[in-house]
Amino acid sequence: MERDEVECFLILAEELHFGRTAERMRLSRARVSQLVQRLERRIGAPLFVRTSRRVALTALGRQLREDLEPHHRAIDAALARAAAAARGVSGVLHVGFSSPPAGEVVLRAAEALRASHPELDVEICEVPLSDPYGPLRKGEFDVQLTELPVREEDLGEGPALLTEERVLAIASGHPLAARRLVSLEDLAKVVLLTIAGELPDYRLEHHVPARTPGGRPIAHGPSVTNMQEALMLVAAGKGAFLTAAHTATYHARPGICYLPFDDAAPVGYGLVWRAGDTTGAVRAFARIALEVARANLTGGELDSADLTGTN
């Protein structure tokens, strides 16, 4: 059943007059008749009794009106709430983060956003390593601060808000552990742990390249779904893991060395959202997250009062 058929039916059921119905819908009387006839054909029986003097509902028409009206009102109310949320900054904003540094930016931005928009609740949650875009696509997150690049047609991507160096997590007993620095060519000397889950090819290649820049093959080892699994296997000598520099600080543990690269591009983190789904709350969060990232970069303090009025 088409929405215009439902609206036409309900308005005509209220007005019982084709002319007034046409005026309210800003349609011609002929178009109103077409919509009613199309709906009646779809149902298979008349919904109105039409004479030269009056229009009346049939028994089936009255039943359909009673069934449809509450659902139609609920749909209109839901659309109105969605439009209001898109215009303003209210309700609940779900924000994801993919690393502890990204989480700190998200947390500070959430606190500032709550201060400037107390009518908005902000809930934050970690993005799973094995499914970096699934929760966002399902609507579990409205926006997330995650690793770049993001080459997904249905997702929008902002600029990098923060960057950090890449490191190789490796068992302390591995021959490379005695080195101060490693290069991407050294990956040919290790077995890299891979990541199980819903990762696009370019993202998997970023974490687990198949070859070094010089073309030498890189061996792949067991699959992991989260950081704790990866570090447990690294410490056990089952493989090495490409990660970001923060891991040495947040996941320091015996049996693992974190070796910086002298030739690897840094890891960048940017905001990602569903394309075409940027509500007022998402835009406000993006502006505040940028301010937080700048404050972190310069060592300055973010004053949430300066952000009051951000929309």
From TrEMBL:
<dbReference type="InterPro" id="IPR005119">
    <property type="entry name" value="LysR_subst-bd"/>
</dbReference>
<keyword id="KW-0238">DNA-binding</keyword>
<feature type="domain" description="HTH lysR-type">
    <location>
        <begin position="1"/>
        <end position="58"/>
    </location>
</feature>
<dbReference type="Pfam" id="PF00126">
    <property type="entry name" value="HTH_1"/>
</dbReference>
<dbReference type="InterPro" id="IPR036388">
    <property type="entry name" value="WH-like_DNA-bd_sf"/>
</dbReference>
<dbReference type="InterPro" id="IPR000847">
    <property type="entry name" value="LysR_HTH_N"/>
</dbReference>
<dbReference type="InterPro" id="IPR036390">
    <property type="entry name" value="WH_DNA-bd_sf"/>
</dbReference>
<comment type="similarity">
    <text>Belongs to the LysR transcriptional regulatory family.</text>
</comment>
<keyword id="KW-0805">Transcription regulation</keyword>
<protein>
    <submittedName>
        <fullName>LysR family transcriptional regulator</fullName>
    </submittedName>
</protein>
<keyword id="KW-0804">Transcription</keyword>
<dbReference type="Pfam" id="PF03466">
    <property type="entry name" value="LysR_substrate"/>
</dbReference>
